[in-house]
Amino acid sequence: MEMFVWLIVFAILIVIEACTMALTTIWFAGGALAAFFAALLGLSIRIQLTLFLLISFLLLVFTRPILIKFTGKNTEKTNADSLIGKKAKVLNKIDNSLAEGTAVLNGQEWTARALDDNQVIPAGETVIVREIRGVKLIVERVMKEEK
User: CB count, 10 Å around CB of 2?
Assistant: First the structure.
């Protein structure tokens, strides 16, 4: 009887993965398949569950990073992610202690803060966007060789 349950679990997980293509349930489908074969061999439910969990975990840990690496290659950064690493021009002095500063990036004015809280960046400087927190650019002064 358990083998039919594992086969149904396997089928459901495959269908979910086929519908989402998010690489979320495929690992557990592998575990369900291993448990199905354990049930075919007549092994106890405890061994079946252990195999299900162990195989699912191993597949998740060892194969997911490889698949993510291959499937994520052709994705383009969008929205805020695409701004990281770009250069911006400081409009108003950036001083974190006074909570002030703006910069222009791609023709849009942004609130800007320095990556280093102790750094004050004067107006007119070129900066590089290191991250985005909410609606603020977190920037760092461009070194001479980067200009």
Answer: 17
